[in-house]
């Protein structure tokens, strides 16, 4: 099998990329403002619903059951899509999916496609693969457009250009729009309304001329073979309805069995992602319909490492993800490291648990992702499908440590620490040793410990451990009730 | 009621004064607290760094050391959370190496200090006196795993002389995270410098938390930056009284609360 592609060139490792990001003051300001605004709005939107906890539990349960019977629902979906006039293609990995899409586009004789914002196509690097076949893909989501025009990479699931502010966006529009189609109007300002108008004019031309569209989907309803895209701008709906051919690339885990199940997620997703009660556009389509919408519909079902993740009892919960990005917006590490540091289409906490599972932990970058968290638990708290991200992170750390990707020195240190901590007598001896060296309080430590002393003082070693103090004083004099000091300990 | 103190290895080795304060406080409230000498460490460092198998003997050891007590009190939100949240999981996946039933017996008896005071002893006014301006950092595991809520704040509000000021962005992680501070030092330091700035902005003399590992990180940064704020464990504030504001009756060691 070819290596699983997740759509981005790799940085050497998360800590290195993150360190560079922490020194970029502009980036940190952009990220801080954006994430804190969305974060607070989300909290208010969620607080409006009295049964949020119940919805969240239902959402987790439905996805769990669906994933347990994924084989069944996928076949049901295939049958329903086929019956409704669509064609289903199965893609084992990114290369497979890219080849299928390229062939489908070529069969139409077109060299241009318009795209609906989609994580799956970013994951497989579809735009680059199509370009290699002489096909140009135009992103039509406003933020994706900014990223594409800026020759940049997305850094957030929902707000791919979150790392850009509006003056940077204006510059990108002025510089690059002409190269891709209709140029930016003269005298473009950085007022949001002007920027939106420039994008509208630029994109309108694309919508009206495109014959082929490529999309992803937020959900697929197995019982009827219906695909669902939720969005805010309406650009997605243009792509889904105007062109003659529609090709949708969707991860196999995006299935829900019934419309009744879908209802649960349509309540959770907008509140979690954009803090809206309901998203402005929810488009659904079932195969093809005579005289309305695309005449040809292809569904490319993408595995790309998902079956492997499904086999892992702890890790599989990551496949419940509905890509709302709430976990990114509350993550203190994402806020400082930025999305690019995660080195895949999936940034933030979900990326830290999804990427190593889909792509494996063979590279230094992917082996560093499970450690890209302080385990503060903010992500788990907001996740609408209750993915225990800290639990999966620790589980993946175990995999890194076990497969020899971890540090040999770390393994030795952990073993030594366990040996000391296993036995109270050994612990007491180690504490007394430390006490004897207490006069020596270095300001700078060598080796990996330098990471601590670069910005912090080391704690002082006390004259006596608690354990020794208790033994000496029986817990420091009179016991409760005024009686004599008792025997302390057992 | 037989009550045991689970000191935690960090407090035992580096912050004995927090343990002394906890003992003094509990005794003042009429609790005859014991220190089971067999105890060592909850295994959090091993587990969180990816060495679950190395944590197994420590989990087993915890269940043995604390068997038979009615309540086990820990002056550390993070270690209490490790026991309550993770020990049953480790036992469950240990293929019998860690006896599940013994773990299941002790786990519900574990309380973080503020939980024990408010829920078991049913006190919020512990008779403490601490005439200083204090701000409180909730620490992630107390907040999100144990869900101690406002218990520490209720305790602090009842302390005579104490001026409690709100910390901006209180519920944000300080960036410690054990191995995280060493594996991702730049992000960890960036998180802490925001925490430290917010602490300094309050004008408080003392930043208080119920977890010395977070305080070691925050305090180490405050000290390096000479920010003029010092860190103190909740237990040490609650142990201070009008008669003994410096804790000279219950502690030796250098870190004086007043
Ligand atoms: S992991 Fe949860 S919070 Fe994060 S994007 Fe997925 S569904 Fe949203």
UniProtKB/TrEMBL annotation, chain A:
Q: Which residues form the Lactate utilization protein B C-terminal domain?
A: 403-473
Residue segments, region Disordered? 463-490
Locate the 4Fe-4S ferredoxin-type domain: which residues? 318-387
UniProt keyword annotations, A-Z: 4Fe-4S, Electron transport, Iron, Iron-sulfur, Metal-binding, Repeat, Transport
Extract the GO molecular function terms from the UniProt entry.
4 iron, 4 sulfur cluster binding; metal ion binding
Question: What high-level taxonomic lineage is stated for the organism?
Answer: Bacteria, Bacillati, Actinomycetota, Actinomycetes, Kitasatosporales
Q: Which GO terms describe its biological process?
A: lactate metabolic process
Which protein is depicted? Iron-sulfur cluster-binding protein
What is an example of a Pfam family matching this protein? LutB_C
Extract the InterPro entries matched here.
Answer: 4Fe4S_Fe-S-bd (IPR017896), 4Fe4S_Fe_S_CS (IPR017900), FTHF_cligase-like_sf (IPR024185), Helical_ferredxn (IPR009051), LUD_dom (IPR003741), LutB/LldF (IPR004452), LutB_C (IPR024569), NagB/RpiA_transferase-like (IPR037171)
UniProt source species: Wenjunlia tyrosinilytica
Give residue ranges for domain LUD.
Answer: 76-301
Gly residues bias spans: 474-490
Automatic annotation (TrEMBL), chain B:
Q: What InterPro entries would the database entry show?
A: Cys_rich_dom
Q: Name one GO molecular function term.
A: oxidoreductase activity
What transmembrane ranges does the database entry give?
Answer: none
An example of a Pfam family matching this protein is CCG
GO CC terms for this protein?
cytosol
**Superkingdom of this entry's organism?**
Bacteria
Q: Where is the Cysteine-rich domain?
A: 3-83, 134-218
> What protein is this chain from?
Fe-S oxidoreductase
Which species is this UniProt entry from? Wenjunlia tyrosinilytica
């Amino acid at each position: 099998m070819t290596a699983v592609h997740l759509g981005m060139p790799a940085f050497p490792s998360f800590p290195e990329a993150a360190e560079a990001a922490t020194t970029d003051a502009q980036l940190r300001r952009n990220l801080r403002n954006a994430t804190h605004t969305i974060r607070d709005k989300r909290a208010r939107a969620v607080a409006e619903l009295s049964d949020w906890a119940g919805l969240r539990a239902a959402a987790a349960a439905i996805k769990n059951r669906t994933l347990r019977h994924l084989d069944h629902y996928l076949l049901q979906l295939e049958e329903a899509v086929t019956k409704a006039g669509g064609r289903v293609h199965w893609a084992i990995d990114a290369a497979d999916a890219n080849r299928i899409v390229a062939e489908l586009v070529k069969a139409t004789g077109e060299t241009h496609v318009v795209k609906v914002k989609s994580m799956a196509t970013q994951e497989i690097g579809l735009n680059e693969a199509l370009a290699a076949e002489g096909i140009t893909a135009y992103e039509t989501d406003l933020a994706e457009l900014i990223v594409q025009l800026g020759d940049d990479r997305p850094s957030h699931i929902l707000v791919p250009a979150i790392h850009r502010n509006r003056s940077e966006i204006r510059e990108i529009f002025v510089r690059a729009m002409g190269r891709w189609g209709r140029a930016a109007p003269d005298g473009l300002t950085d007022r949001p309304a002007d920027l939106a108008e420039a994008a509208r004019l630029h994109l309108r031309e694309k919508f009206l001329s495109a014959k082929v569209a490529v999309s992803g989907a937020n959900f697929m309803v197995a019982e009827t073979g219906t695909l669902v895209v939720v969005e805010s701008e309406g650009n997605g709906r243009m792509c889904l309805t105007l062109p003659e051919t529609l090709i949708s690339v969707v991860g196999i885990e995006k299935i829900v069995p019934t419309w009744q199940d879908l209802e649960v997620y349509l309540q959770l997703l907008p509140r979690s992602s954009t803090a809206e009660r309901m998203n402005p556009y929810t488009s659904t389509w079932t195969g093809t319909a005579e005289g309305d919408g695309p005449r040809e519909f292809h569904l490319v079902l993408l595995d790309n490492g998902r079956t492997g993740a499904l086999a892992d009892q702890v890790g599989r919960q990551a496949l419940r993800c509905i890509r709302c990005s709430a976990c990114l917006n509350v993550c203190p590490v994402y806020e400082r490291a930025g999305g690019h540091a995660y080195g895949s289409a999936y940034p933030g906490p979900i990326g830290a648990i999804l990427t190593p599972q889909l792509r494996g932990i063979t590279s230094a970058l992917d082996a560093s992702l499970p450690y890209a968290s302080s385990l503060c638990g903010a992500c788990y708290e907001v996740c609408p499908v209750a993915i225990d991200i800290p639990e999966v992170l620790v589980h993946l750390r175990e995999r890194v440590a076990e497969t020899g990707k971890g540090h040999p020195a770390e393994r030795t240190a952990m073993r030594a620490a366990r040996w000391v901590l296993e036995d109270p007598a050994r612990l007491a001896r180690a504490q007394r040793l430390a006490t004897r060296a207490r006069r020596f309080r270095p300001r700078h430590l060598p080796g990996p410990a330098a990471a601590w002393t670069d910005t912090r003082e080391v704690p002082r070693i006390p004259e006596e451990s608690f354990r020794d103090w208790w033994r000496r004083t029986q817990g420091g004099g009179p016991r409760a009730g005024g009686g004599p000091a008792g025997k302390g300990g057992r | 009621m037989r009550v045991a103190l689970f000191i935690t290895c960090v407090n035992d080795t580096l912050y004995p004064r927090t343990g002394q304060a906890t003992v003094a406080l509990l005794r003042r409230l009429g609790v005859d607290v014991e220190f089971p000498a067999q105890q060592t460490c909850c295994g959090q460092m091993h587990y969180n760094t990816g060495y679950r198998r190395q944590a197994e003997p420590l989990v087993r050891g915890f269940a043995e050391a604390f068997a038979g007590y009615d309540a086990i009190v820990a002056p550390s939100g993070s270690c209490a959370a490790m026991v309550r949240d993770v020990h049953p999981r480790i036992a469950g996946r240990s293929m019998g190496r860690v006896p599940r039933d013994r773990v299941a017996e002790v786990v519900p008896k574990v309380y973080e200090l503020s939980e024990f005071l408010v829920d078991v002893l049913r006190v919020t006014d512990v008779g403490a006196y601490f005439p200083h301006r204090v701000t409180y950092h909730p620490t992630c595991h107390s907040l999100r795993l144990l869900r101690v809520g406002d218990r520490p704040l209720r305790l602090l509000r009842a302390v005579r002389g104490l001026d409690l000021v709100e910390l901006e962005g209180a519920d944000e992680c300080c960036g410690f995270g054990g191995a995280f501070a060493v594996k991702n030092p730049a992000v960890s330091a960036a998180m802490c410098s925001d925490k430290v700035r917010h602490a300094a902005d309050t004008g408080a003399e003392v930043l208080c938390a119920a977890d010395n590992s977070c305080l070691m990180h925050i305090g180490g940064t405050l000290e390096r930056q000479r920010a003029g704020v010092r860190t103190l464990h909740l237990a040490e504030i609650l142990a201070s009284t009008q008669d003994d504001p410096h804790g000279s009756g219950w502690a030796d060691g250098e870190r004086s609360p007043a």
